[in-house]
């Protein structure tokens, strides 16, 4: 069965790949993922904010008590001995690149304009084949307008795209007023792909200690539906290739994602639950499903259920609420 | 080194430790290290160089091994040498003493070896970390050659000469330079080139050393035992090597001189060619003498000279005598050590003997036999200045000079001291014209010293000036003040003494103006720069009156900048260094070019590699600094109505007024000998008289939110927060600030609950706020304790605290001994100089609350001995009855034995007292004797009762004649149980003191051992110990420790009869309290290992309690109690107090820079270490569970 697909300009043997997660921190796991047939390796994000915070804290911890007490002019080995910045991530890019033959897609979450650009360049120099921009802001400032948030995403994307030669994908969150319009604007920056969607730590409350506790649960197939809608809406209507990320657990999920228009399907939670070999099972299962349902190729199926081609596009456009009501009428 | 100084451009800035340490590294293959001040940096540098792959002269990275003690390091190098390797080590003071046995062996076996020593005072009546020659002089007999350096340059050059000469001569060398004065002085030195090393080190001799190494291919035996028939002769057999040694050293000096134009002699003479008065001296003081002699000769035409001793052992008589001009009539020999009871101090005796020998052999060339007098100077880095040197020369000019004298102090007891003028304005100024002298007063935490080191580098790189930097620190670990002494000059600078008159004085922390006389050393017309808060218009008025007057009298040019505000605005927090440095450069004009650009360039170099953000913030601070710098006009009259407050309050005791206050005010040098106790015994409870006021924000109590849990008092490292219950009527006259609540609890039903905070003793660590559970339910951000500016709440807090102290303490007998109520007990350890947020002191405070009135504490050297007993003030105190902990520090290595000795003595004295009671039974009330003999319980009730019986006994004994009654009277107090505690850190317990600790717990003695485990040698600056966990980076384990932390508790449990526990007060405070009570009540050895968060862990200690919780929950630090009494009762002896692992070890580790840097630097290695650490944590838990579940096979 021909499962080939084209994502971010790469000809891939099939659409399945691990999504951004700490799984790839371990080179052995990366190799296992490749052995399981991963079409590409997506790295977890380099977080500019975390790098900066860790670095500041380390510098403060080392410098704060230094040169205060005659017996201990410092309490720490000289920081000259260590790499405190993005080196760790960049070295890891190079290591993964050296360890696998498939494309390596790095990921970046910046906070400052210079951070986005500088780190994107460094990632490119480190050997990444493509870059996924993890643009995520919580617009907690009540004076921020939706336009301002959109503009920020577009500006950053444009600046990064202009700064690097490797393909660039933008990983979006679903929380935009007009995601389609934003996608159009982002398309105009020349980007190569969209990844739909990001999943975030969500705050929870500890009602005994009266504290806010961040939590991140593994996804379930239920989360796929939000992706399916927007894949279907964008499929065939924007130039950049599309990746589905979030809620893909089984073969049916993969099929749905591709039918909705995905060129690539990223899997994280299912791999964390079942191990890297699960990717091979999904690939085999996908081929079997296509064969059983007499598809000629994956390409035949891609986008077959998108907004333009599905029999009842209103279900995507108007929302399931109406559909549910209708079902009771 | 003086005659052939290279041009300034050839020099590199370095300190003595770096200078000597690098030579040692380059010339060695095996380096054994162990930290000790002030030599630690040599070992640290060696470890860093090895980690960075730096190679020795032969292209190899030396193998660096950290040992458990200096004795271990000496043993290791001895072994390495005997295997044919080139080995070295570094040490000082007590560490050197521990090496002495091996030094005899190494020398007796004629082994080429160099030991580099940053010479430091030996502990006698007190410990001192500072410099003198008492340690190296203790090695005179070992057979080591002793080679002295006087300057940073010499520390390098003599190091190489020593390495060269030892190979040639086979005599091992002890190369030394003065601790701190040389080891820590930044100065320019010309680095040696590889060709210099190669020219100096004889490869053939290295081959010979290798061939002498032990090898099974050519077996030999060394270290035999010899008998009276041959030992003596065999000992003499090595003598020719000593005879040849001086000429070999001179030849090495000559070789180096030919290559570098820096010429040295075994004894160097400088001064008038026909000098009549000469001073003989060794070490950095020799530079002061040399410079002064040259000055007096040139400017006063005095016929004086100086002899610098370089090779002290073997003492080359003819070289020494030949060095002296024949015209010499009087010689003063200066020793930097004291040998009580000797005819004279050691160098003096050698000189006298050498001169007598020369005369006897006809080698004396003097016109007349010179008079030789001996003087002592500079103990514990006591200042030694040109003014003092002049006083010695003056003494030599007298008809009958003092035969023995001291210089630098006022000995009003032994009358030994020579008079000299100590006043700042009357100092002999011998620095070359054009010397720029600058003084900077700062706080340790504000980065002043770091900035000044940076300034030295900039000036060194950007100007043609020579520079010298020396930095003085006080002995506190929080809120410490620093004074930086910087000199710059077109001429090379030696001047190994502090600046007494400065043309530039900066005060980086405004409150210091109220604590010390900052302008004391300002020259007439000096530029004075203040970091002053608020508007420029208010600066003059805010100065204390005496500072205003001094500014007027000295016609200073006064400048101010609100550096704290500028730094804060730039995002640098309290780091004002960049702002002040920029202003210094602007005002001093020392940089000819664009100072701002050069500072920014330096910032880029310092931080660019790590953080663009830090660079950006510092650049912003530089840019803003000059626009905030304003000149303050100095009016003709002082106008302030306020002045520097007295160092201690007027109600302080006489000794505190007369001695402590002077030390606090920076006038300790002026105290005469008679002011001091003769045996190092000091009064307790003096810390409370020093109100330092170092916190900008202090906690403020909102009673309405308080739940009276007392956790704030429990965790406060400085005993600043106190809680008490008192009768409502006692508050009738209370100030409004003394707020109260109705006491919750039956034990003091109807009483009022008080919480008081001492603002000036607070360090602002915020642990109290972090632990406070009293949240406003409608706004949980608001807690019962809130940090507020001291300017806003200080007065209220102070009024409340002062009133609080007047109220009676609670009745100890009524206090339930659980975590909440024990905080009602008075802490007898308060206001120490420990770090803000210290993780050790809460344990100590708690122990003093529980047992302080009957505690005797043996304290190992380390952090706890420094904040526990470093002058000027003492935090251990006593209760209203005058009872409190008796505290003593013996050494680092012997603390368990020392405490054991105390225990043994108390046991013996108690036994003798009981025996005496029995002897006198017929003469004393029968009931009293019977109760005294039985009443040995250790609970509060029993102790109170026993004290009352002893009080009853004493008058009864007074009425009985006879020696037995008199003896019993003296020792009757021992009938009340003493609680013997042995305190120390992990460096002591796991490493250097482990042998003793092991022996003491095996002895069964009733001692209570508290190990405050910071998992690193904290006091000496964060070197790894065997308590350092897997994966943590520490000095000596930069890449992350690869071995598991030693399981000290499990080892101790193996004895079966030892109470063993692990506690973490930040995790389960109730378990900590319970453990200490059980440990103390156990009639046998108790070992309590307390997790102690520490600044060396690399995070903001305001999160210390959270990290303690994570340490426990992640399995890093399981909580348990092993109590042998439970075994006897048929129960399982081990109780696990922490549950199963429920947090990720990775989360615990990522929060601390000690782990995070490893993670960032080498993620794969870190991952491997993390996996091993996780496995180790599980294994420890499993082992503990195994022991906890273990059933005695014999059904005990």
**Radius of gyration of chain A from the CA trace?**
22 Å
The gyration radius over C-alpha positions of chain B equals 32 Å
H/E series of chain A, N to C? Answer: EEEHEHHEHEHEHEEEHEHEHHHHH
Number of continuous helical runs of chain B: 40
- How would you write the strand order of the largest sheet of chain A? 3-12-11-8-7-6-5-4
Q: What is the rounded distance between the termini of chain B?
A: 75 Å
Q: How many DSSP E strands of chain A?
A: 12
Quick overview of this protein structure:
Chain A is an alpha/beta fold. Chain A has 13 helices and 12 strands. In chain A, β11, α8 (251-260) and β12 form a beta-alpha-beta unit.
Q: What can you tell me about this protein's structure?
A:
Chain A has 329 residues and is of the alpha/beta class. Chain A is 43% helix and 17% strand. Chain A contains 13 helices and 12 strands. Chain A has helices at 27-35, 48-63, 87-99, 113-126, 146-163, 179-188, 224-234, 251-260, 269-274, 277-292, 298-301, 314-318, 320-328, and strands at 5-7, 10-12, 16-18, 41-47, 104-109, 130-134, 168-172, 193-196, 202-206, 211-215, 241-245, 264-267. Chain A has an 8-stranded parallel beta sheet with strand order 3-12-11-8-7-6-5-4. In chain A, strands 1-2 form a two-stranded antiparallel sheet. In chain A, strands 9-10 form a two-stranded antiparallel ribbon. The radius of gyration of chain A is 22 Å and the shape is globular. Chain A starts with a strand and ends with a helix. Residues 323-329 of chain A have low confidence and may be disordered. Chain B is of the alpha/beta class and 1196 residues long. In chain B, helix 3 runs parallel beside helix 4 (93-108). The longest helix of chain B is centred in the C-terminal third of the chain and has 27 residues, at 1163-1189. In chain B, 57% of the residues are buried. Mean pLDDT of chain B is 95; it is low at 1-5. Chains A and B meet through helix 2 and helix 3 of A and helix 2, helix 15, helix 21, helix 39 and helix 40 of B.
